What we know:
Blueprint: H1 2-14, H2 19-22, H3 36-49, H4 72-98, H5 106-125, H6 133-141, H7 144-151, H8 157-166, H9 169-185
Helix pairs in contact: 1-4, 4-5, 4-6, 5-9, 6-7
Amino acid sequence: MSIHEFSHGWIAYKLGDTTAKYQGRLTLNPLAHIDPIGTILLPIFLFIVSRGQFVFGAAKPVPINYWALKNPKKDMLWIGLAGPAANLLAALLCSQILKILPEANILAVLLKNFAIINIVLGVFNLIPIPPLDGSRILTAVLPSEMARGYARLESFGFFIIMIFIAFGLFDFIVWPIVYRIIAILGL
């Protein structure tokens, strides 16, 4: 989550928004990105309720000041892509390191798990359901009128995501893409 959130903040900073920097969020330190509910309570609750079968959580989103961006609509495309791209890049880097490590090595096991978690985070966040990054990307490419209407879904986003997961759509959409990327990277 640190790589993901840092990347959003770093790209926003490069595009003119200093908000994340001045709030101490331009860091890979995970403590800066912990949300008490989304990062701690929600995963624990879901773990208990599902008897260890399902865990889901969220980091504290990096603050973005749209008005500080040079071209807010276009810049949000790059900011939205930054987190998932960083996750997939981290997985790619891990896959390359794994090619030179012996398989029966604890570091290899950790790197493989780290890579898979990053792939899941990257793919999941590309789903165009607000507030996921895919919605930021979609909003940036939609005509302004449609983008405004679509953005209104954000207040229902958490519930839409929970419905998405509850009806097993995660299994039909996210996992096939994740498995394909895992195969491509040779993990």
